[in-house]
């Protein structure tokens, strides 16, 4: 995994949104496939339309555990990484690692419910299966993904201490929280942020001003002099 800071905006559905993000400091665009109940979950043709030259790296975000389906969807998107957002088991991660190109990064979401990391017993197995980085996100009343619910700094630091891969923070992350999470950003495993609603206006459209604020607050330049330590690329 690159030591560069990840700034990922999720839920894109239109090629013009990819073009908009391409003019910002956003590094990755999360494109949803097989996300049940979401109008922003695209089919294969929709994924192909999102492969826009000059845009940020595409990241396929899915609840699916169908390894062949994920591999085909990733190829349609032309993405550089896959984010497994539900409770896919380590065996599915291992099968996906064997199936996709070796350059594909696999991100596994870890779920926090009232301060408890639900997948804590399986972290070692996920790492051995081939996870490149983790995304720490919150559950809200059983709802998974795009909850907008924040995890407190102490909990994030405790979770970071038990991970042996870089981690990305999701859930209630906006420009105003960069100061609150300064200690998390200094953690040697911290790798970036994953956002959805905080990059959008009140109507749900991507907001360039809010995105610029996110990049300024959380991007690599914001860490100059902050004491952050890069995480090295894990050995193959």
TrEMBL record:
Sequence ranges assigned to domain N-(5'phosphoribosyl) anthranilate isomerase (PRAI) in this UniProt record: 36-215
Record field: catalytic activity: N-(5-phospho-beta-D-ribosyl)anthranilate = 1-(2-carboxyphenylamino)-1-deoxy-D-ribulose 5-phosphate
Top enzyme class: isomerase
GO BP annotations, alphabetical order: L-tryptophan biosynthetic process
This enzyme's EC code(s): 5.3.1.24
Pathway field: Amino-acid biosynthesis; L-tryptophan biosynthesis; L-tryptophan from chorismate: step 3/5
PANTHER family: N-(5'-PHOSPHORIBOSYL)ANTHRANILATE ISOMERASE
Name this polypeptide is given: N-(5'-phosphoribosyl)anthranilate isomerase
Native source organism of the sequence: Sanguibacter suaedae
